[in-house]
Amino acid sequence: MTPDVDTIVWLGMKLMMLVGLGIYIVFAFIIVRQEQLMSKTLEAASERIISILTWLHLGAAVVVFMLALLIL
Amino acid sequence: MPVLFEAPSQAPKKTSKKGRQAVYPFSTPFTAYVMNPKDIRFETQGTDEEVILFLRQHIIVLIPPFILGIIFFFMPFILFPMLVRFLQSPIEIPSGYVVVGTIFWYVATFGYLLTTFLHWHFNIFIVTNHRIIDIDFLFLLYRKFAEAKIEKIQDISFRTGGIMATVFDYGDVLIQTASELPNFVFEKVPRPSEVVHVISDLTENRKKGRNV
């Protein structure tokens, strides 16, 4: 039994989305890393809030990837 | 013995429009101008080195990306349904893709605002009692650190123009240093005339041989 064209198209779509979301996770991780490096360069009391925001962004990127893996 | 005189406690002074000394000395993530900050240190700061002036670009530069962020926020509600109706595509997009796509759209919008903010937040100018420092966060993996000793400063000026710059009092401070060193441009910093005054005072004091 061969899968129909629609199934192949949507499978390809899913793979493309997962690759895209995977790249976005790398991007989000780079932001976290960069923030850590810059916080070493500049030590200010407010840096903790920014660090939390970058980690939240990375977390959200991972959640979207997992969601795509599960529901697509 | 009765107390004849008691020195007033040194409470942090609030910002005033004219007074150069009267600036609250603590920073927030949105601070763009602070004199004698008590809570800021940088990587290569010497033990006898004090931060006199800490600058970022004026907060007004964040307004256009913020407005763009608001537009991005409403796009899934307004623009996307309109686009789907206009294109009249025969292919029906599965609901899973709509859900993941919408959530990703908001994460990416947040990412855009975050990187824009970080770019602004980590582009800093520091004036200490020994040197001036320009730290640039160019894009993610690139950062630039430039410094010049106070005594190497040869000429300092500022330029400001346009409605926004006049209303919000920001402009570029141009610092010319000894020829072998790069020239500094503190772009779109708040109160450029005051910045020029502070650095001029420092260079004059240094020339007179006094340590500030």
Q: On the 0-100 scale, what is the average pLDDT of chain A?
A: 89
Question: Strand share of the residues of chain A?
Answer: under 5%
Percent in helix of chain A: over 70%
Task: Describe the sheet with the most strands of chain A.
Answer: none
Number of distinct beta strands of chain B: 9
Gyration radius of chain A (Cα, Å) is 18 Å
Mean residue pLDDT of chain B: 82
Shape of chain B: elongated
Q: Round the Cα radius of gyration of chain B to an integer and report it.
A: 24 Å
Class based on secondary structure composition and strand pairing of chain B: alpha+beta
Low-confidence stretches of chain B: 8-22
Task: Provide tags for this entry.
heterodimer; A: 72 residues; mainly alpha; B: 212 residues; alpha+beta; PH-domain like; 2 domains; five-stranded antiparallel sheet; three-stranded antiparallel sheet; 9 strands; 26% strand; elongated; DUF5657 (chain A); membrane (chain A); transmembrane (chain A); transmembrane helix (chain A)
Layout of strands and helices, then pairs:
The complex is a heterodimer of chains A (72) and B (212).
Chain A lengths: L4 H37 E3 L2 H25 L1
Chain B lengths: L32 E3 L4 E3 L8 E5 L7 H25 L7 H27 L2 E5 L2 E9 L2 E8 L3 E7 L3 H6 L1 E8 L6 E7 L1 H16 L5
Antiparallel strand pairs in B: 1-3, 3-4, 4-5, 5-6, 7-8, 8-9
In words, what does this structure look like?
The complex is a heterodimer of chains A (about 70) and B (about 210). With about 70 residues, chain A is mostly helical. Helices cover about 85% and strands about 5% of the residues of chain A. Chain A has one domain. Chain A is built from 2 helices and 1 strand. By secondary structure, chain B is of the alpha+beta class. Chain B has helices spanning about 65-85, 95-120, 165-170, 190-205; strands spanning about 35, 40, 50-55, 125-130, 130-140, 140-150, 155-160, 170-175, 185-190. A 5-stranded antiparallel beta sheet of chain B has the order 1-3-4-5-6. In chain B, β5 and β6 (about 140-150) form a beta hairpin. The longest helix of chain B is centred in the middle third of the chain and has 27 residues, at about 95-120. Chain B is elongated and about 80 Å long. Chain B starts with about 30 loop residues before the first strand and ends in a 5-residue tail after the last helix. Residues about 10-20 of chain B have low confidence and may be disordered. The interface of A and B includes residues 40, 42 and 67 of A. Chain B: It comes from Candidatus Gottesmanbacteria bacterium GW2011_GWB1_44_11c. Chain B: Keywords: Membrane, Transmembrane, Transmembrane helix. Chain B: This is DUF304 domain-containing protein. Chain A: Keywords: Membrane, Transmembrane, Transmembrane helix.
